[in-house]
Design goal:
single chain, 304 residues, D-Maltodextrin-Binding Protein, domain 2, Double Stranded RNA Binding Domain, five-stranded mixed sheet, globular
Length: 304
Amino acid sequence: MTASRSDVLRIATRSSAQARTQAESVAGALRSAHPGLTVELVFVDTIGDQRQDVPLHEIGGQGVFVKEVQRAVLEGRADLAAHSAKDLPSTPGDGLVIAAFCERRSANDALVGRALDQLDEGATVATGSVRRRAQLASLRPDLQVVELRGNIQTRLSKIPAGGSILMAVAALEILGLTDHVAEVLSVESFVPAVGQGCVAVECGSDDVETRRLVEAVDHVATRCAVEVERAFLAMLGSGCSLPVGAHVDSRARTDDGRGTVLRAFLADPERGVALRRTLPIAGADPVVDAQRLAGAMRDELAGL
């Protein structure tokens, strides 16, 4: 279906409180940009929602929260799909295009419970992310890390005694729950997931009218940053299951003040090795720079 100003514009989204609130923010922005436009939400359950008793990396990792939402667009049940950008595979789905990267919230991770320096030796930290697990292990190998799944409220109810849970600040920001944060972790120590803190909006690649409408909520600076991060991830290959993080840190500037910095993390937990790298992004093609860094880190990790 091709949306027009007289149509109802339907946004497919997961039904969790976080996903619903993110989609509502997109709907509100679209209504503000196009007065008179009617926008509705279409709720979809994904395999990631249905199988909350299984670690994410065991049921497919990246993509488990998006495929069914994308299918709603491809099958004509919705015109748009709203996702947390960090959940999207690094290559676009067939027949779809990312029409907007909405302005990014905080990209940082956070500890809820106790701050890092308040955790006793051997304390328990819960997280469902292999990236967070690997970065925590490289900083505090004494800590015990356990699996954590569920929606935000469920996770907040599972803070270990004397310990913490690790999660994205943006997930708490969108629900007004940042008062639970014990410590916001720096992007230097905990390199965020690709696209973390951003909402991405997809539509059909041939749906020109809907794409035109959605471009009004595309945030140029966020798009530039997230596309560089996604290029880094794509270079590692769709089959890469290693813990990886990449973040264009707009607050960190190159020496001449004309560029930003790409922070990257790649680890092999089975061998207990991890790499962190920082790359100035000031050239004519930062996507190529990100791809080169990914290739170099992949080769370096393999040689350790």
